[in-house]
Structure formats: C-alpha cells, structure tokens
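Sat 14:20. Reprocessing the chain from the morning session after the first attempt stalled halfway. Input below, unchanged.
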Amino acid sequence: MTEVALSPRGRSVAYTVRRLSPGQAPAPRARLYVARTSGRDDPRLLFQDEHDIRAPAWHPDGTHLAFVRPVNGTPQVFVIPLNGGVPYRLTDTPHGAQAPQWGPDGERLLFASHVPEPAVRRQTARRPPTERPGRTASDTIRTPPPDTLLVLRHDRTLRPVDTLAVDADGRPQTPTDTTDTLHVPRHSSLSDTLTAPPVRRLAGLSPDSLQAVFDRFRLRSDTTTVAVRPDTAAAPNGTLAQVRRWMHQNRRSGTALVSSRLEIQGERQLRPTPTYRHHYVVDLPAGIRSGRPPRPTPRLLTGGYRSYGQADWLPGGEQVVVSGMPATNESPDRVRRRNLYVADLNTPRLRRLLRIENHTLTSPSVTTDGSTVAFRVESLAPSSDAPAEIGLFALDGRSQPRILTSALDRDVTSVTWAPDGWYLYTTAPSEGGRPLFRFTPFAQDTTDGAPQAPSPTLPTDRATSRNTFTFDSTMVRPAEAEQLTSAARAIHSFDVTDATAVYASTDPTTPSALYANTVSFNNERPLATPNAEWLSRRQVAPPDRMTVSHDSLAVTGWVTRPVAFADSLRHPLFVQARGGPPALSAPYTPEAWFERQYLTGRGLGLVEGFPRGSAGFGTAFRRANDKNWGPGPARDILALADSAAALSWTDSTRVALGGTGYGGTLTAWILGRTNRFAAAVALNGVYDLPALLGGGRAWRLVPAEFGGYPWDGVPPRSLGDPVLSSRLPSPDSTAQTPWTALHRNSPLTYAHRIRTPLLLMQGGADRRVGPSQGERLYKRLKILDRPVEYVRYPEVGHDMSASASPRQRLDRLVRTYEFLARFLEPPAPPTAPQSPPRP
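Finished this time. Tokens:
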C-alpha cells in the first residue's frame, strides 16, 4: 500500500494497493481505492488494472482524481470521476507523464516527463553538450561550399566555349562533348576524405603549357560558382563524414551502444543516451464531465539540456517553484548542484529563486499563502556526512534561508505543509524504522504561554531581494522536532490537512495498512487493512529491540523469536546485517516484514543488526565507518550475534550470517576473517570495492567513504601483513590512504580465507553495484574449491522489492531457507507452512 492522497477538505483519502500473486494466473496488480477518513464506511474500489496505478491526485473541487497508469509500457495521466466510470486519458506524451499536480483553480495540470536527448535537440534546435573526444555534435553534417568552375571564353566574343557546361550568363548547361569540366584546384589543411583526391587533367599541367593552350585556341579564362548538392550518403568505406553517418545509423538501430557520458549506469540498465526530466502543463478540456473531448496538447514549462526535480504550484496558478540544475556548459552528469527556480506559464524564461553555495536544494513545498517555500538541502562537500535537512526561504528574497532541522540529526525526505502553514511534516530513517516528524517553524510563545497564530513568513532583514547565499552558522535556527510515530514503524506515504493526517505504514504486527489520525496524534484508527484476513489465520512473531555497547557506540538490533513452536526448543539463529551506507542499504518494506515472518515461521531465530555507518542513528554513528566498512561494522554485528546467542531460546552452535546490499558486503568480509558461522547468504553486495568505481552506479561512494580513488596512495610494493592482519584491528582512518582502505575493506581481498558455505544471490540487472560483483566472488571461491552456490535473477535490480516479480521474490525466500536448512537443521514447523502472502 503506497501513495496516499487526502481530498481538499480531508473527508476522503485515495490510495493504491498492489496485489502480488506468485502464481501463473493473471491477477490485478494495482487497485485505486477511496475511503472516508472517519472510518465509518468500507473503502470503495474506484478502478483496478493489470498494470501499476500510481500517484493519485485530487482535483481542487474534490470531484475527480488524476492518476498514472502505463499505456503500452509508457506512463500516462488519466482522470476519473469520484463516482466511478471509465477514466479519461488526459495525456499522450511520447516519453511518458508522471507526478501529476492540479493547479489551484483545477483548470490545469502539471506533470513531469523524462525526455531523451534527441528529443530535446529537436525541441531546442541546439546541439547537446558532449565530452566525446575529438568529435562534435555536428560532425556528421557537412554542407559543402559551392564549386568553382573555370570558364573558357572566346577572347573576342566572350562567349563560353562549348566544352564547358555553362552559358553566357554563367548558368550550368548540358555539355555538348566529352571534355571534363575544369575544376579549379582547392587546397585544405584538413581533407574530409579517407582516400587521395583525384587529379584533374588540366589542373596538372604547368602554367606555361596551360597558357600555350589558351593562346592556340584564342581563349581567356573566367570563373563562376555552382551550388553542390549536400553529401548525405552513409558508407563504411566513404569519406570521413560518410563513415560517421554509417556508424550513427548503427547506433540508432541498436547495433552498437555508444557513450561518452560519466553516468552511463542506470538503475537496471546502461544509459548511453541521457534523458532530461522536464515539466509540462496541460489544460483540462471542457466537457470532460459529460463526454470524451479531444485530448489537449501539453505545453513545455521547462526545457533544455538540464533536468528538473519536484515542483509545486504558487497560489496564483500562473507560476511554479521547481528544483533544477543551474545553467552551465558542463556535462549534466558532472553537475550535482540544484537550485530553486520560478517558472512562469506565460514566458519561457526561468527566474532563479534561491542558490546556496556548495549545497543542493530539492523537494520545494510552498505554503498555501505563497509566502514561504520549504525545501530539502544537502551539502556537496566531498567528505560531508551531514544529514539532509529542511530549509525555509521567504519568496520575496529579503531574508536569508533558515535551516530548520539541524537538531533532529536525521536524513529528512520530502516536505509537506499543513494547509494553514502552522505545521511542517516529513519522514526520516530512524533506528531501523521511518517515523513521521513535524515542526512548528513559526511558533512563538506569548506571555500567557499560548502559541501565537501562525505567520508563515521569515522576518525581513533587508530592503532588496537576493537569490544567492553562502552557507553560514547564522542560517541554522532549529525548530523542535516532534516524533509522531514510533521508530518500530516505517511510514511509506502520508498526507495531512489542518485537522487530519493519513499514512500508510509497516509495523511489527502489520505488513501494510492505512491509518487516519487527528493532528494531535492521539486517535489513530485503521482505514484499510488489506492483509487482515490473511493475518487472522497466522501467528505473528513480534521483534524485540536489542542494544549492545562497545567502541563507545550503542549498536541497535531487532531479535525475533519463533512463536509457533514449543517453548522448550532451542532455535538456530540467522544474523542479518541491515543498514549501512544509504545508497546500498535496503529500506524497511512490507517485503522485509514478510521475510522476517516467513523465516521465523520456519523455526529460525532472527537477529537484524544496524552496524555503524547506518542512517537513522545520528551523524557520529554514520561517520564511524569512514574508511572502515569491514573491521568496525563487523565487530558491531558480531557483538549483536553474541548477545542473541546467549538468550535462553537460541542454540549458539547453529548460527548463520546474511545480508542484502551493504549487508551482503559485510557478510562476505566477515566470512574472510572468521569461521564461526555454519552458513551464509549474501544478496547484491559489493565484494570488490575498487571495481565499484567503474562498474556501479553507486560509484560516488568510493571517494565519499574512502577519501579518494583507488589510484590514490598506491604503495611502492604489494600489500603486506601490517596492513592486512589476521585480526579485526581498529583502523586508524587518518593513516590509511584510499588505496589501502579500499583493499583492506574489500571482501575479495580475503576471499581465499572463506570456508563457510555461502549462497550468493545477484540481481542480473543490478547496475547500482554492477552485476559482475557476485560473479567475481563466486569465481574466486570456485577456483579455490570452496562451498559456494550462485543464483542470478534476470532483469532484477538492486532493490528486489521494486524490480523482482512475485515469483522471484518468493524464490529468494524459499532458497534462503532451503540453503540455511542444509547446515542449521531448524525444527520442523508444527503445521504445514503456507507460502508468503500477497501484500
């Protein structure tokens, strides 16, 4: 259950439910529901489809909903009346339409589209930026200059001799004999041919002999120009321009993928041709409530060779605040900075609203009165581990930005205002979950202790407006954070009004459900529980929080005991490393909930640990793994394993290890340093850290986490024992070079020591770390004749919950259990186990 949206008055909520079926029979994948926030009526099915339905958005009058569904694989925006019926297809954009937002008056709708570079070139009639060495964007196009002809005229009549193909006025004529047209030789410093130029007969004569010919036939020379037809041929053995055209045709047909861009890896496939995210505005046609009017033509709001992120309407309905790249001649792949801009629907020009030096600004959200914009701000300093924060800026530009959430010490996500501008809501990873937080940025206590009425503006401190600032400490003015839900829950989507909040969440007892609450958050009530019937027939194993302290750190984990077994049984343990650097960590999703319940239902005790470097535990905890992806985090996980193994219901002689993403990396690293585990499972890990730089989309982790690149600090001789000891040393991060740190923390460095049975799982389309990572470790272990098994899931990316089919997800769970059962011998369930449910 994802993507909830409250109606304008907060009386109803729209939401989508994805139903996953591991069987072969077709079943609806997504459904769009509407429910009353009072909870008095059952949710009403508004529309269902075999494809995903996403991004429901209410019309301002509350009578219609816009949503996105694919048409022949391309997402488009549809509009459906609240009383049901056949949806009206509003867009037919060739590159798709996403993230619909109604304008304040409901007459227009804003949406985003990912436009490929060739289409941007047609829109702008400008050449794209390129880093192709020795090539330009136009070197397949050549308009040759006019040809210069030598005309031989009679020295008395000045009429041309009939051996030339021109008349008295210089117009080309059909020659009357077989004599070649005389071309005046032209010389160029760079020939556009792969073969030697031809030599004309008369051009090769000496001046004396040529003059003798003129005298004999009483001729005098003259010149004229004749237009030459442009060369459009494409051939592998032609001129250089023809060769380039031939190669370009192969590129367009898919014969060869050609790229010179930096960010060539996408999430699941290579991206040799860049795409740019742009916003469009489309007018709602008249008659949509009574018929099927002709589909309107969208208008481009942003354009060019730069991308734009989230956008939000200003109250007048004629302007939009949007996050986007600055104008630059650099390749867009090298530009990480984002500024805030104001786009006007009636002019093609963008106006810069806010730029903070060395920071990126995203996710703008404007107050209802249009006075203030909230946004997400992140530092671009190379070694910064500062969390993403919320900033505020008055749209008149007469006060400096305010950084609001520094005291929270968590990575905030998107920002949502309450309609009256009093509260500001966000979610952030925290202690293994994703709670909902809120702030009152403009609240001030009066003398009688009662809060003042909200005033969503920043104090004016200058007479003229500014749009560029340098970050300094005076901007940091934190507001107190109020945590509204527990850290044991993960809020996936939410929406708010002045009186009501709705949110979809996963909690320890429910994989996915929709709740409503008052803004005081003291009256939570379920609105939709799509898994309730399935849960009523099963026992749910709730996790218990566990904390261990060492290295001056408090390390958190969750321990889950199987509940459907006799109390006297001692269960084997499966220790899972979660968390880690955010780019590689797996979020807490309903799929993670089902994994926990499935494995404990099979008799395995679970320990889920968050080692140093994980988000949601503060900046100091996150920085504790700088240049230290192996030794320190390994001690964290081993400490949790030791604590769990000492529990009365666990069997310390039967313990396995596992992890996904960074958890898979840490699993393989630990196996190279200890043989204490009976078996291990790793999914989509990074096992060769230096190779991540060139082989994965998450390559920026290398310089950010290790202070440089694999070629920085290469020692004059090979690795030695002082660097790679057999112990788990506490590394001195300041003394390590990037080269040393990368190899020291790379699991492949210690692969020759791995003797634990290992199940390696790899998404076949995982471009975030590179699909070859699992192959490298598997091949090394097979050469060494170690107990290893390799599973590859075709078309699956780094995040299985977003890219794997239902059958692939089920297959991963079952294979994990079956492999662990070979070595842990878990007890047989008291009843025949059932397959995981369909969330």
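Residues 147-185+201-226 form one domain.
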